[in-house]
Amino acid sequence: MTALLSISGLTAFYGSVQALRGVDLEVGKGEVVALIGSNGAGKSTLMMSIFGNPRARDGRILFDGQDITDMPTHEIARLSIAQSPEGRRIFSRMTVYENLQMGAAVAGFAGFEANLDKVFGIFPRLKERLKQRGGTLSGGEQQMLAIARALMSNPKLLLLDEPSLGLAPLVCKQIFETVKRLNEEEGLSVFLVEQDAHHALKLAHRAYVLVNGAVTMSGKGADLLRDPKVRAAYLEGGAH
Questions:
Q1: Helix or strand holding residue 115 (H, E)
Q2: Lowest CB count within 10 Å: 1, 71, 127, 132, which one?
Q3: 31-53+72-235 carries CATH number 3.40.50.300
Q4: Could you name the domain of life of the organism this protein comes from (predicted)?
């Protein structure tokens, strides 16, 4: 397996508080890799640190063989890494179309029409809502828009932070099915941070468990789904 994203010995701080403690993690080309853990474990911090916010105190982050550890955030964004952040964070006063334009701007609008057709094929609902302001969409539609906006730059790696947060179970299922399809049909590599451990582990080829800023377990998604310790902590009324 060729690593597309490789994180080694990563530590990060918020002020004097250590958020990440020597994290080692890899996402291979064409893989879906999940990161699960309780609230406050450092999952979103790890996702954000890939873009340099917070900056790594120690360790290295390689993307497609290139060291991006100290690279400015705007330069990292141009490297075929796209992020759908926690809480969606769409531009609520902009229309659906304008949000998609913002996603394409990172890549200099390369292949704009083709990418637009692609995201409408994945999320037909967005085509129907094209002139609607982002803030007037339902939660599920906003999540679709956040993912579609990320896809408009035609990334090699998609970072998905808590895509199921606050969504109805049926909508969650649709979002996870979409991610699966993107991976299988487009070969898109996905790094997924998710509190819904059941859906995340079912979807992922491999997964990591993060506890207090450190990786405590890793393995195939299906194996972790069956692991008694993982089940007790994240799947059977433990930490969610």
A1: helix 112-122
A2: 1
A3: yes
A4: Bacteria
Q: Are 146 and 88 in contact (CB under 8 A)?
A: yes
| Contacts of residue 181, Cβ cutoff 8 Å, sequence gap at least 6 | 122
Report the distance separating Cα 59 and Cα 185, nearest Å: 34
Which is nearest to 197 in space by CA: 235, 226, 232? 235
Which residues, in sequence order, are CB contacts of 93 under 8 Å at separation 6+?
Answer: 133, 134, 135
Alpha-carbon dihedral angle through residues 102, 80, 69, 224, given to the nearest 10 degrees: 110
Query: Using alpha carbons only, what angle is made at residue 145 by residues 143 and 148, rounded to the nearest 5 degrees?
Result: 110
Write out pLDDT tens, residues 75-113: 998 899 998 877 668 999 999 999 999 999 988 898 999
Q: How many residues are listed for the chain in this entry? A: 240
The SS3 of residue 202 is helix
- In this predicted structure, the answer to whether residue 240 has a pLDDT above a threshold of 50 is no
pLDDT for 171 equals 87
Among candidate residues 173, 222, 182, the one with its CA nearest the CA of residue 202:
222
Domain ranges of the chain: 31-53+72-235
The pair of three-digit structure tokens given for residue 72, joined into one six-digit string: 């400015």
Tell me: the pLDDT tens digits for 49-66? 999 989 999 999 999 999
d(C-alpha 53, C-alpha 208), whole Å? 21
Residue 46's closest CA among 101, 94, 5?
Answer: 5
Eight-state DSSP code of residue 136: G
What count of other Cβ atoms lies within 10 Å of the Cβ of residue 110? 11
pLDDT of residue 77: 85
